[in-house]
Amino acid sequence: MSTDKAQSWVYCEEFLTEDDVLLDARERASHLGCTPVLPGTGAALSVLAAAAQARAVVEIGTGAGVSSLYLLRGMPADGVLTTIDVELEHQRAAKEAFVAERVRPTRTRAISGRALDVLPRLTDGGYDMVFVDADADGYPGYVEEAVRLLRPGGVLAVDDALWHDRVADPARRDEATTTIRDVGRQVRADDRLIPALLPTGDGLLVAARR
Q1: Are strands 80-85 and 108-112 parallel, antiparallel or unpaired?
Q2: DSSP state, 77?
Q3: Using 50, 70 and 90 to split pLDDT, how confident is the model at 145?
Q4: Within 13 Å, how many C-alpha atoms sit on residue 55's CB side?
Q5: Is the N or the C terminus of the chain less surrounded, counting Cβ atoms within 10 Å?
Q6: Residue 105 neighbours by CB distance under 10 Å
Q7: End-to-end Cα spacing for the chain
Q8: Are 49 and 78 in contact (CB under 8 A)?
């Protein structure tokens, strides 16, 4: 990457300044050892949620609630975020962020458990947006479930789609990189989806459901 391109990436990531609620959520994420979305990705999630008028959103991987805040800020005031995480400690941290944000309790539904156990219980075509940001090895199954959950016109977003800049390098063949590279192909080849790969953050794979 040229110096100019790298500078442009940093400029994009810093284009919007994060407030204290987001910064505090990031600090909690650091203490828990979970990696939140970068600011550019968060801003993109807000825009996607707003453009889709997403009243029903599923988030796979709550973390400490950074991406949850960005999604909620883009959703209509009556929108409900269903967020799934296997770690109860993560969800407790996210609830702290929701309280700081003054999010009404009725706007969030936190489900503790393995996503591949929870997702099959959710309604086909019942959601406007699904965001995937969890363990890399589960991505293929999460994406397949996400497509089932989305209504026509709904939005899929998958974080870490460039996986530390390894996905674009064909010589990188470690398991996580290969899995995420295959997920990109999975989404690109799915006739039900209109996809794009955005270089924001660590890569954001997005698609609209036909």
Answers
A1: parallel
A2: T
A3: very high
A4: 5
A5: N
A6: 9
A7: 34
A8: no
Integer Cα distance of 58 and 148 in angstroms: 12
Type of residue found at 123 = T
- Phi first, then psi, for residue 3 (nearest 5°) are -60, -40
Render 165-197 in DSSP notation, one character per residue. TTTT-TT---HHHHHHHHHHHHHHH-TTEEEEE
State residue 84's pLDDT score: 98
H/E element, 140: helix 139-149
Q: Which amino acid is at 109?
A: R
Token reading at 180: 């995420």
pLDDT in tens, 17-49: 999 999 999 999 999 999 999 999 999 999 999
Secondary structure class of 66 (helix, strand, coil): helix
Identify whether the C-beta of residue 99 lies closer than 8 Å to the C-beta of residue 25. Answer: no
198/41 Cα distance (integer angstroms): 9
Question: Is 149 buried (19+), middle (13-18) or exposed (0-12) by CB count in 10 A?
Answer: buried
Question: Left, alpha or beta for 160 (phi > 0: left; psi -120 to 50: alpha)?
Answer: left
Report yes or no: 52 and 128 within 8 Å, Cβ to Cβ: yes
Angle, helix 139-149 to helix 175-189, in steps of 10 degrees: 30
